[in-house]
Design brief:
Shape: elongated
Distance between the termini: 29 Å
Order of helices and strands: HEEEEEHEEHEEEEH
Largest sheet: 7 strands, mixed
Strand order of the largest sheet: 5-6-1-2-3-4-7
Number of strands: 11
Helix content: 25-40%
Number of domains: 1
Strand content: 25-35%
Number of helices: 4
Radius of gyration: 17 Å
Length: 153
């Protein structure tokens, strides 16, 4: 087990009592309206989603909501409302946070010197890019900060 995998294993142990957020996957059908269905749960740590078995990168985050008829001033607002309704149709509770479009990351590849999403090994130190234009920062400090926020300390 490499240093990235060890940091993630330690993070899972520290987060054991912290709440998780839902993961969703898009489903389409000829007979039913598009929906977002449950696909597990993860701890949300900024740009990372930590599951029992792996690590994912975040993408779209939404709250499930019943569809309602409203007048929208922007097409983007209509699209967001439809995405929230898709999650509700897929079985998520009203107001439940759902992560969609996430990507599986390869911690072993990072430990081998590669890059996987926001994770990279920099001079032997596991690192994370906390925003698309942001710098790589040590993963240890990033996880410490995010875990403290997640468990409320």
């Amino acid at each position: 087990m490499g240093p990235t995998e060890e940091l993630l294993r330690d993070a899972r142990a520290r987060l054991a009592a912290a709440p998780r957020e839902s993961l969703g996957r898009e489903r389409t059908s000829r007979w039913r309206a598009d929906r977002i269905v449950p696909a597990g749960a993860a701890w949300h740590l900024g740009v990372l989603l930590l599951t029992d078995e792996g690590v994912l990168s975040t993408a779209e985050i939404l709250r499930a909501a019943e569809p309602v008829r409203r007048g929208y001033t922007a097409e983007s607002a209509r699209a967001r409302a439809e995405r929230r309704a898709q999650a509700r149709r897929g079985g998520f509770a009203e107001g439940e946070v759902v992560h969609v479009g996430w990507q599986v990351l390869d911690a072993a590849a990072v430990d081998a010197g590669g890059v996987s999403g926001p994770l990279a090994l920099v001079e032997g130190v596991p690192s994370v890019r906390w925003s698309p234009g942001g710098l790589l920062v040590p993963l240890q400090g990033y996880l410490d900060e995010r875990i403290a926020l997640a468990i409320g300390t």
